[in-house]
């Protein structure tokens, strides 16, 4: 399958933008709920306002996390794969596990776990902070990587690097 890393990068930015919009609306709603006069505690057992403020705080934190991921991904210089340097942040990779299952990954500075769909093919974002991301840095097409996940060794072969 012919994957275009520039198109994947654009899809990641678009998805982060949508996620940011959703998170900002959720944070605003949680804030309004937390500060609404009907939610002022009438006694020590009335915790709706307190719970709403915890939710608003969590939503605000999520907005900041997405903003950070979006900024880092926007500032990522997407360059062609360098056969001398191997896999770097910004690489689009095809991997095959020891059971022959194929997957596509995009190595980004942030937004780990984000998934985008490219013509029916899921592409998952990973970062160099993950065991797999760290082990892929500097590798080349055809290289094998070994990762320890929850005490179990997993083996992958880099089938494609862009």
Strands, helices and their partners?
Elements (H helix, E strand, L loop, with lengths): L4 H31 L12 H27 L17 E6 L4 E6 L7 E4 L2 E6 L4 H6 L7 E6 L2 E10 L1
Parallel strand pairs: 2-4
Antiparallel strand pairs: 1-2, 1-6, 3-4, 5-6
Helix pairs in contact: 1-2
Q: Could you describe the largest sheet, including whether it forms a barrel?
A: 6 strands, mixed
Q: What percent of the residues sit in helical stretches (DSSP H or I)?
A: 25-40%
Question: What value does the Rg take, in angstroms?
Answer: 20 Å
Structural class: alpha+beta
Strand content: 15-25%
**Number of separate structural domains:** 2
Can you tell me the overall shape?
A: elongated
What can you tell me about this protein's structure?
- The structure is a single chain.
- Helix 1 (5-35) runs antiparallel to helix 2 (48-74).
- The chain folds into 2 domains: 5-74; 92-161, Transcription elongation factor, GreA/GreB, C-terminal domain (Chitinase A, domain 3).
- The protein is built from 3 helices and 6 strands, in the order ααββββαββ.
- The protein has helices spanning 5-35, 48-74, 131-136; strands at 92-97, 102-107, 115-118, 121-126, 144-149, 152-161.
- Strands 3-4-2-1-6-5 form a 6-stranded mixed sheet.
- It is an alpha+beta fold and 162 residues long.
- The chain is elongated and about 65 Å long.
- The mean pLDDT is 92.
- Keywords: Elongation factor, Protein biosynthesis.
């Amino acid at each position: 399958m012919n994957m275009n890393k520039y198109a994947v990068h654009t899809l990641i930015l678009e998805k982060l933008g949508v996620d940011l919009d959703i998170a900002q609306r959720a944070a605003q709603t949680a804030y309004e709920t937390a500060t609404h006069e009907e939610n002022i505690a009438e006694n020590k057992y009335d915790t709706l306002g307190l719970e709403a403020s915890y939710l608003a705080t969590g939503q605000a934190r999520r907005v900041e996390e997405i903003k950070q991921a979006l900024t880092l991904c926007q500032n990522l210089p997407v360059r062609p794969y360098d056969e001398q340097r191997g896999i770097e942040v910004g690489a689009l990779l095809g991997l095959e596990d020891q059971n022959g299952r194929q997957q596509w990954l995009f190595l980004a500075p942030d937004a780990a776990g984000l998934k985008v769909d490219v013509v029916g093919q899921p592409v998952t974002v990973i970062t160099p902070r993950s065991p797999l991301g760290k082990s892929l840095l500097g590798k080349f097409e055809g290289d094998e990587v070994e990762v320890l996940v929850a005490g179990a060794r997993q083996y992958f072969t880099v089938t494609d690097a862009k």
